[in-house]
Amino acid sequence: MPSLSVxxxxxxxxxxxxxxxxxxxxxxxxxxYQGGPNAGHTVVVGDQTYVLRLIPSGILNRGTLxxxxxxxxxxxxxxxxxxDELRARRxxxxxxxLRVSAGAHVIFEHHRKLDQLAERWRGAGxxxxxxxxxxxxxxxxxxxxxxxxCDLLDADSxxxxxxxxxVEKNALFEKVHGEAPLPVEEAVARYxxxxxxxxxxxxxxxxxxxxxxxxxxxxLFEGAQGALLDLDHGTYPYVxxxxxxxxxxxxxxxxxxxxxxxxxxxxxxxCTRVGEGPFPSEDFGRDGEIIREVGHEYGSVTGRPRRCGWxxxxxxxxxxxxxxxxxxxxxxxDVLSAFDQIKICTSYQQGTRRYAEYPSDLPSLEGLGxxxxxxxxxxxxxxxxxxxxxxPAKARSYVERLEALVGVRTEMLSVGPERDQVIPRxx
Length: 427
Description:
This protein has helices at residues 16-23, 76-88, 109-122, 134-142, 149-152, 155-176, 184-198, 205-214, 249-253, 286-294, 313-322, 393-406, and strands at residues 3-8, 29-32, 41-45, 48-52, 65-68, 73-74, 98-101, 105-106, 202-203, 219-226, 262-268, 271-273, 307-309, 311-312, 327-331, 341-350, 353-355, 369-376, 410-414, 422-424. The protein has 427 residues and is of the alpha/beta class.
């Protein structure tokens, strides 16, 4: 694992946290390169469940250095909530095992407020954001008016730039949304203080990662949201505000794209999605409800029930392709033990038109219906299986059919939330 990308190959919530925690045992550095506290990686260790939002999933492995890189939208208040929660549970989080980029853009209270107001303003056209300020933060970054972590470390710079930003944002709150303005002096004092606390963690993370790689260290890049939420390649506008896959690594971490050696996609053995937007293989009936209840499909950060459906081989083939996946890992295979018959979406249909490949005209996904292939279920409890050859024959047939449809071989299967509930494909 000299350099490895682990990315979500669906709409997020694919079980990346568990897989990254597992792979981090062999990594020297785990690098988070995009997204913000709208992502939640759930890791189960024994009887303990950890939900990580900003801190990379390698934090539970001693000896791993965790990097919050420049491409992350960092909410420092949420970061320290997370640090304090982990420390209270006796997980060490110190500058020795967590570093934060001086170039990461900062989410402020006004970003969160704008996010929530904009979603309310859209009404029926809402895009389903989490309201945590990620979109407005990235918008300010693109407009070149944002503040970075380095600005919090300089009290004069923080006061000058944050005061100027709040003049503009308060005008929006008052004149457009009819809301009370945010107190400027109070905000400046809060973020100057948080900058002092943050300072020991801050460094040039891009330089740190490049030097570590040159010295032979093993680097794992952790994606936050799924590939179908990618700003450029996902189901726009129902996407997140960053490049979620391998394409975001170079810009989001300062690591050269040409030096990325492996890319592993993570996908459930079925599909889920949170929020608005097209979901061609969604099941609106009893099967979708069974997947949700058996798979405990509720957001780890928001608690929102996830929309559920069958494995979408068309979308999966697309995401593995544009991310250059060298393999993929199928999670939650055990959930499908609840079914006598299992469906796979193998193409889409809209009127008389059929799509065998993912449509380049992404808005045309609206109104698409799935064309399914049906396979027999196995109905056996597979949560205790640890070798591929010990899986029921029908489960192996299902996995091998997915591999044939997406054109990339699985590397591992997950059959439960625990760290050890994994099956190497070559076993």
